[in-house]
Write a structure and sequence with these properties.
The chain is of the alpha/beta class. It has one domain: Tetrahydropterin Synthase, Chain A (2-Layer Sandwich). It is 30% helix and 32% strand. The chain is built from 3 helices and 6 strands. It has helices spanning 53-67, 79-89, 102-118, and strands at residues 5-16, 29-40, 71-75, 93-96, 124-131, 137-140. A 6-stranded mixed β-sheet has the order 4-3-1-2-5-6, sandwiched between helices. It is elongated and about 50 Å long. The model has no long low-confidence stretch (mean pLDDT 97).
Length: 141
């Protein structure tokens, strides 16, 4: 039995820093992130789709746009820095429960955000790829 999934690519810009990193990534810096989110369903809809690609853009793309795009993504342990940045610049800060590595960000989208956004549609995020750069990405399945 084969499984059909559909994948939508979404892009956003954000800054982050990795606390306790041994190199340059301990400093605040930015990326053009690319998310590839794949969804599957027990059966195709009446038109023969897992889900309309526009719904993925609306729901997941909308969440990313509201929460991560053009923000500073920090570990919740980095609140002092986040509050200083926000006070000085008015910049929006998003706090993750873990250090904002590509792995932690992808895990958060896959396990925390996608289930909340898509459960009512009867579809499941079956894989998620997050590109931090053109050369580096992580997968969650």
């Amino acid at each position: 039995m084969s499984t059909i999934s559909c994948t939508r690519k979404l892009e956003f810009d954000a800054a982050h820093r990795l606390r306790e990193h041994e190199g340059k990534c301990k400093n605040l810096h930015g990326h053009r992130y690319v998310v590839e989110a794949s969804f599957s369903a027990p059966k195709l809809d009446s038109l023969g789709r897992v889900v309309d690609f526009a719904i993925i853009k609306e729901k997941l793309g909308g969440w990313i746009d509201s929460n991560w795009d053009h923000t500073v993504i920090l570990w919740e342990r980095d609140r002092e820095l986040g509050e200083a940045i926000a006070a000085k610049t008015g910049q929006t800060i998003y706090y993750l429960p873990g250090n904002p590595t590509a792995e932690n960000m992808a895990h958060y989208l896959f396990h925390d955000i996608c289930p909340k956004l898509f459960a009512s549609l009867g579809i499941t995020c079956s894989a998620l790829r997050l590109h931090e750069t053109n050369h580096c990405y992580v997968d969650v399945v």
